[in-house]
């Protein structure tokens, strides 16, 4: 076996991207210590579900637990009688293996709804998991699994996904719910809606609130905060932001300082409230609408637009 050694290790700092399974030669299935490490496969069977619904004059919206149970029986029989034997024959043919029956498929979960946005980005509404009836959602790779969104925003997005599936929303119901959330969103303060980011790349300021060309938004937000608490003699009360810190970030309406974004460590200083107002439209677009864009596209719904709704400039910090 060819000897391989680590040549160097580079510290990348905090990374917000997802880390997925190991791959060997471009595939996700491989043996490790005689154990097959693998991913699950997803397939759709709407015709089978509809067939069972038609037998008892039910619709997909009124599907019962007994129908789900019958559908699962048919799926399990198909996997046992058709899928596994076919796969084992193919393995024996291609790999000349006498142990082809060691590899088999089993049903992991049955879902009534699946929203698949891209590879490794989806959510499932699971109603049966390994033979046990349930009512839960599994989220993989989508925004509510990230640490950037504040808890209250994650909860709102999760409710939209789950209510739209359980209650079979149409486009008008989705937009009505977004309208209600928009009205509530405008009452939240900066600590509740600012998103989390890692401050990993420093840039030098060219003066007070003046940054070099090409400075990242996060670096600008952090530097503005540091300069402002120094300028307003708050440095002894509030800690500066340093490289490697996790900070909060919020977009601002036009203000006397001419900055469009501000960062802060954990809680926004009360002394700065008088100077700034939240750009609620931009924050709503980035916090709520952007994570839902793929879902709207999948459902062929027109996305809600807060710019068509009344908006006030209240900062909202208590």
Structure keywords:
318 residues; alpha+beta; Topoisomerase I, Chain A, domain 4; 3-stranded antiparallel β-sheet; 7 helices; disordered C terminus
Mean pLDDT: 83
Instruction: Note the total helix count.
Output: 7
How many angstroms does the end-to-end distance come to? 65 Å
CATH 4th-level superfamily of the largest domain? B family DNA polymerase, thumb domain
CATH architecture of the largest domain: Orthogonal Bundle
Shape: flat
Order of helices and strands: EEHHEEEHHHEEEHEEH
Strand order of the largest sheet: 3-4-5
If you had to describe this structure to a student in words, what would you say it looks like?
There is one protein chain. The chain is an alpha+beta fold. It is built from 7 helices and 10 strands. The protein has helices spanning 46-55, 65-95, 151-166, 171-185, 190-193, 217-231, 280-299, and strands at residues 30-32, 35-37, 109-118, 121-129, 132-140, 195-198, 205-207, 210-211, 246-251, 261-264. The strands form 4 sheets. A 3-stranded antiparallel β-sheet has the order 3-4-5. Helix 1 runs antiparallel to helix 2. The model is unreliable at 313-318 (pLDDT under 50).
What is this entry, summarized?
The chain is of the alpha+beta class.
List the helices and strands and how they pair.
Elements: E1 30-32, E2 35-37, H1 46-55, H2 65-95, E3 109-118, E4 121-129, E5 132-140, H3 151-166, H4 171-185, H5 190-193, E6 195-198, E7 205-207, E8 210-211, H6 217-231, E9 246-251, E10 261-264, H7 280-299
Antiparallel strand pairs: 1-2, 3-4, 4-5, 6-9, 7-8, 9-10
Helix pairs in contact: 1-2
């Amino acid at each position: 076996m060819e000897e391989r050694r680590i040549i160097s290790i580079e510290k990348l700092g905090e990374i917000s991207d997802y880390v997925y399974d190991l791959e060997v030669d471009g595939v996700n299935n491989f043996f490790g210590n005689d154990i097959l490490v693998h991913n699950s496969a997803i397939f759709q069977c709407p015709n089978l579900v509809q067939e069972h619904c038609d037998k008892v004059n039910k619709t997909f919206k009124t599907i019962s637990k007994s129908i789900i149970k019958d559908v699962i029986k048919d799926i399990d029989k198909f996997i046992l009688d058709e899928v596994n034997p076919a796969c084992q024959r193919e393995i024996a043919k291609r790999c000349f293996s006498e142990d082809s029956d060691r590899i088999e498929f089993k049903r992991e979960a049955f879902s009534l709804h699946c929203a698949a946005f891209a590879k490794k980005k989806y959510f499932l509404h699971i109603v049966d998991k390994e033979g046990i009836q349930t009512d839960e959602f599994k989220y993989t790779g989508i925004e509510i699994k990230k640490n950037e969104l504040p808890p209250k925003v994650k909860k709102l997005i999760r409710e939209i996904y789950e209510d739209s599936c359980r209650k079979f929303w149409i486009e008008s119901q989705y937009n009505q719910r977004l309208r209600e959330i928009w009205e509530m969103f405008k009452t939240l303060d900066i600590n509740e809606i600012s998103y989390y980011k890692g401050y990993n790349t420093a840039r030098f300021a060219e003066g007070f609130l003046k940054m070099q060309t090409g400075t990242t938004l996060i670096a600008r937000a952090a530097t503005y905060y540091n300069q402002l608490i120094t300028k307003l003699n708050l440095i002894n009360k509030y800690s500066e932001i340093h490289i490697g810190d996790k900070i909060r970030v919020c977009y601002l309406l036009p203000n006397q300082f001419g900055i469009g974004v501000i960062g802060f460590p954990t809680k926004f200083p009360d002394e700065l409230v008088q100077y700034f107002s939240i750009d609620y439209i931009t924050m709503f677009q980035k916090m709520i609408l952007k994570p839902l864009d793929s879902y709207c596209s999948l459902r062929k719904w027109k996305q809600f637009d807060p710019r068509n709704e009344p908006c006030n400039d209240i900062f909202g910090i208590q």
